[in-house]
Design brief:
The complex is a heterodimer.
Chain A (H helix, E strand, L loop, with lengths): L1 H8 L10 H10 L4 E2 L6 E2 L5 H6 L3 H26 L4 H12 L2 H8 L5 H16 L2 H14 L1 H16 L4 H26 L14 H8 L11 H14 L7 H13 L6 H22 L5 H28 L4 H11 L5 E3 L5 H6 L3 E2 L11 H13 L3 H10 L2 E7 H7 L6 H8 L3 E6 L3 E6 L2
Parallel strand pairs in A: 3-4, 3-5
Antiparallel strand pairs in A: 1-2, 5-7, 6-7
Helix pairs in contact in A: 1-6, 1-15, 4-5, 4-6, 4-7, 5-14, 7-8, 7-9, 8-9, 8-10, 9-10, 9-13, 12-14, 12-15, 13-14, 18-19
Chain B lengths: L2 H22 L8 H16 L5 E2 L6 E2 L5 H10 L6 H12 L1 H13 L2 H12 L2 H7 L6 H15 L6 H14 L3 H17 L6 H21 L1 H7 L10 H7 L5 H8 L1 H17 L2 H18 L5 H29 L6 H29 L4 H13 L5 E3 L5 H8 L2 E2 L12 H9 L3 H10 L4 E5 H7 L13 E6 L3 E6 L2
Parallel strand pairs in B: 3-4, 3-5
Antiparallel strand pairs in B: 1-2, 5-7, 6-7
Helix pairs in contact in B: 1-4, 1-6, 1-18, 2-3, 2-20, 3-4, 4-8, 5-6, 5-8, 5-17, 6-17, 7-18, 8-9, 9-11, 10-11, 10-16, 15-17, 16-17, 19-20, 21-22
Classes of the chains: A alpha/beta, B mainly alpha.
Chain lengths: 447, 488
């Protein structure tokens, strides 16, 4: 029910939330080894799993599959927790906290490249715990096709879980098979697309402050942890500290994930499950232990539950309002009818522009992308310049026919109307407005 | 409590209150721009029973993120006290009440009424309390009282648990400074843990509650600020150029003059005595001090509030040193000198704290908005279009909205406000008409209000570009103020 809230609450005309969804949807609609739109045309060196799975009916499955997989993930987690020996009440609370956690809601309420991989990881763990060898091995082996980072993290976690048990042999079997599949898949991509270029620019803000912001949804993170869940989890760690030697696998997994989330945001999805379990453990411990003051007990548990609900509702609200708005979706649809050509925008708008059937200078998929650093530098220069000559040089270099600007992009890029490229668009005869609403402006380059 | 103690405590309270009120009534106006922010919001609540959510005047129109608890409290007193009396009297009474709380806490930890009275006296005369709060309708008055009352209750949790729950809810509602209490409690647990001191079960329970209450309320109230600025919300979105003046480094000399030498010497000595005794109450107070130091060092707490808290805590702890000092005299041949010696110390405290406090209060009052400034702002109110945008220095922005009742370009309430400091700074500092006109057009500025305060702040004599009569017309001036109308 929670997972279906986001799509149901989104405005009728705003379709899927986020940017990645539109890339997957486009790939699902036109599966091919050659992508004619991204970076002006490139070998489609992508993780194809999700796109291929929704190919039979892209738009329908894009909306149906995430919540269905969410349910499967939920059931797998229930089974996994049972095999970890958690009592019924703690398990129920853990599941409730998971279901209302921002990363879980994000994963299974919109189309993205991670939701199938995470479900497979949970199912793989559950099967592993149940000693169902074939399903478990299969889940881990096909995971790299859906998400390589998720696959690497889940294999690492499986290693942590099995290292202190007697089932290491089976782990190594899974590890070797998964490694073979992942290597074969990514070597093939590298063979045709060339080796990936090292990024010379920061796609996300660096520094501890912005990292912390990314890790917590309440601080503005796209799919960060609930800050209340994390605080409760810390209490859970304190309460379970004495038991750490009996669950060394879990202890090392949490420790590893705490390090990994600073290296890859994908680790947040996995960390979220541990945070939920530890938070449930803390809540149950607080509810069961003898309190000196009943008033304090009641208020404390009430505040904790309210905090978790607050994080969930706040995140659902944000996801409901998340871009693209109806105005942007409408602009994408109308832009489809314009003549073919390269449309320039910020790389974060690349997937939308490509969904509208236009070639881009660059998009967010930097892996294996051709001349990604040069394209980024040119894009930055084009946004900042007020020199027509310089602008036209870049425009000619990439054969740009359109410029896509949405309201948020304008606000983020320029502080006033006559700054950078906006000045040229306004006062030069080389550009003509091809489409304009309060949400989006599309300018045509006149030659 | 002994009768003499009651009389002495009453006398200290009334003396502190009388001094505060004396200074507050030295001017019909208030001594900070922030005071006018609170007055304006309180007036609106008193009139409409609801707060200003979308402020049409601040920053030319913006969403105001504030719990308004302080404004509702003042509005309640506005019903009984006419005109500006509520703003003059109520904050001063609340601040004077600090001496009662300091007395109560000091008595709790020393069980010596004379020592507690000494603490009450030193706290009442702490210079920074005069400098940073007198005649300023300061929200810190309420925060400090709530904070000290929570500390007091924390020492007797079993009997006052309901009060504790209520205040845990109220403090973060009033101001994000509530986090200070929660952070201090965590430090307390760490300190007692390091010393292997067993903390009562009820204390641990209350600490968990405070922590989660603070988180919940902070995220409920300031959700948008956290989503927009992340942890930057802790710095209240103060422009980076101004951060140093709001969240300053600890300057030892300034700290000493702000707190006073007596609380520092007695507080530090008392602190050392108490640590030896391994008293939990002292560990709690140490935790508050340590947290205060840490937050000041990390520039996460306003310098003035940080020093005020430090001063009050030192005043509380100085009771231990005073207690020990008197006890020591009892053991020596100077026992007959006990009363004169104690009296000498009290006199020394009065002299060393009272004089700097009076000077600080005088300085604050002389920094109040002047008759010239007020009449200029009143002229703007009476002679300009209702929708006119008036540029003033960021530290005088609330004068424009509250007195002139016109839109400002920016003011000092930065939470969720756009960063306009550098543009404003450019307008006042530049000599180039071209450079000035760009931001003037950007913010649709109709008038520029230039006071001596602004000139001093930007180290300018005049707006050089305003000599251009095609673009600027001086429409009003006094000895200390000028108003220019933009005509191009």
């Amino acid at each position: 029910m929670i997972l279906s809230l986001v799509p149901l609450m989104r405005a009728d005309d705003s379709f899927l939330a986020g940017r990645e969804a539109y890339s997957i949807l486009r790939l699902a609609e036109h599966p091919s080894t050659w992508d004619p739109l991204s970076y002006g045309g490139r070998f489609a060196a992508y993780t194809w799993g999700t796109a291929l799975l929704i190919t039979p009916s892209p738009k329908l499955l894009a909306q149906l599959l995430p919540p269905i997989f969410g349910l499967l993930a939920f059931l797998s987690l229930w089974g996994t927790l049972k095999s970890f020996g958690l009592d019924n009440n703690t398990r129920r609370v853990a599941l409730a906290i998971t279901a209302t956690s921002p990363p879980f809601i994000f994963l299974f309420s919109t189309l993205n490249n991670q939701f199938i991989a995470i479900t497979l990881a949970l199912f793989g763990l559950y099967s592993f715990a149940k000693n169902w060898k074939v399903p478990s091995a299969l889940a881990f082996i096909i995971m790299p096709v859906f998400s390589l980072p998720a696959s690497l993290i889940s294999i690492t976690l499986l290693f942590m879980m099995t290292f202190f048990s007697k089932r290491r042999d089976f782990f190594w079997l899974i590890f070797v098979c998964t490694a073979i599949v992942a290597t074969a898949y990514y070597l093939t991509l590298a063979k045709y697309a060339g080796s990936p270029e090292k990024l010379l620019f920061a796609a996300t803000e660096l520094g501890l402050h912005s990292r912390l912001q990314d890790h917590f949804s309440d601080l503005g993170g796209k799919y960060g942890l609930s800050i209340f869940g994390a605080m409760l989890a810390m209490l859970g760690v304190i309460y379970s500290w004495k038991k750490k030697y009996s669950d060394l696998g879990v202890f090392f997994s949490v420790f590893t994930l705490a390090v990994l989330i600073f290296l890859t945001k994908h680790a947040i999805f996995f960390m979220n499950f541990f945070v939920s379990i530890l938070a449930a453990y803390a809540l149950m411990a607080l509810a069961r232990k003898g309190w000196e003051s009943r008033t304090l007990k009641n208020f404390t548990i009430l505040v904790m539950v309210l905090g978790l609900i607050f994080s969930a509702t706040s995140f659902i609200n944000r996801q409901t309002m998340a871009e693209p708005s109806g105005g942007i979706v409408q602009a994408m649809e109308i832009f489809k009818d314009h003549d073919e050509g390269v449309a320039f925008s910020h790389y974060t708008r690349g997937y939308w522009v490509e969904y509208a059937g236009k070639k881009t200078v660059m998009d967010e998929n930097f892996a294996f992308a051709p001349n990604v650093n040069e394209r980024w530098q040119d894009s930055e220069n084009l946004f900042k310049t007020r020199s027509l000559d310089e602008a036209m040089k870049i425009i000619d270099k990439y054969d740009i026919s359109y410029i896509w600007l949405d309201r948020k992009l304008r606000d983020e890029t320029w502080s006033h109307k006559e700054e950078g490229l906006q000045f040229l668009l306004e006062y030069s005869n080389n550009f003509k407005k091809a489409y304009s609403t309060e949400h989006v402006e599309i300018w045509k380059v006149l030659r | 409590m002994r009768f003499q103690t009651k009389i002495a405590l009453g006398a200290i309270f009334l003396t502190v209150l009388a001094i505060r009120l004396y200074f507050a009534f030295q001017t019909p106006y208030f001594s900070s721009d922030e005071a006018y922010f609170h007055i304006r919001h309180t007036e609106y609540i008193a009139e409409n029973l609801k707060p200003i959510v979308n402020d049409e005047l601040s920053y030319g129109g913006r969403f105001v993120l504030n719990s308004h608890v302080f404004h509702y409290l003042l509005a309640l007193f506005k019903l009984a006290l006419p005109g500006m009396l509520a703003y003059k009297i109520v904050p001063e009474i609340i601040l004077a009440m600090l001496v009662l709380l300091v007395f109560a806490i000091a008595k709790e930890i020393t069980n010596n009424e004379t020592a507690a009275l000494f603490s009450a006296l030193t706290s009442g005369l702490t210079p920074i309390l005069f400098k940073a709060t007198i005649n300023q309708v300061s929200i810190y008055s309420l925060i400090l009282v709530l904070l000290l009352y929570m500390i007091y209750i924390f020492f007797d949790l079993r009997n006052k648990v309901r009060w504790f729950v209520l205040l845990s809810l109220l403090l973060p509602l009033v101001h994000p400074a509530g986090f200070f209490f929660a952070a201090s409690m965590i430090v307390y647990l760490l300190l007692t843990g390091l010393e292997s001191i067993e903390v009562e079960q009820i204390s641990k329970e209350s600490i968990i509650l405070v922590l989660f209450f603070n988180l919940l309320i902070a995220f409920l109230l300031f959700k948008n600020a956290f989503l927009t600025t992340g942890l930057g919300a802790a710095w209240q979105n103060v422009p980076s150029e101004l951060l140093d003046s709001y969240f300053r480094n600890i300057n030892v000399l300034e700290a000493v003059t702000s707190i006073g030498i007596i609380p520092i010497i007695f507080g530090t000595t008392g602190f050392l005595f108490a640590l030896k005794a391994k008293k939990k109450s002292i560990y709690a107070l140490s935790a508050f001090m340590l947290t205060d130091f840490l937050l000041l060092a990390m520039k996460m707490i306003d310098f003035n509030i940080g020093i005020m808290i430090l001063g009050l805590l030192l005043a509380v702890i100085s009771s231990i040193a005073f207690d020990k000092f008197v006890a020591y005299l009892n053991m020596t041949k100077f026992i007959r000198m006990k009363k004169p010696a104690a009296a000498a110390f009290v006199l020394l405290a009065i002299a060393s704290l009272g004089i700097p406090s009076l000077i600080a209060a005088e300085g604050t009052i002389s920094n109040s908005i002047t008759q010239d400034e007020y009449s200029t702002l009143a002229w703007i109110r009476d002679n300009t279009a209702k929708m006119a945008v008036v540029l003033a220095d960021i530290n005088e922005g609330n004068y424009v909205t509250a007195i002139a009742e016109r839109k400002n370009v920016a003011d000092s309430y930065f939470l969720l406000a756009p960063d306009r400091y550098s543009d404003i700074s450019n307008i006042f500092r530049t000599q180039s008409l071209v450079k000035a006109i760009e931001p003037i057009k950007k913010y649709n500025i109709d008038y520029i209000y230039l006071s001596d305060r602004t000139k001093k702040n930007y180290k300018i004599e005049e707006l050089v570009y305003a000599r251009d009569e095609n673009c600027f017309k001086k429409v009003f001036y006094t000895e200390k103020t000028e108003v220019y109308r933009i005509t191009c």
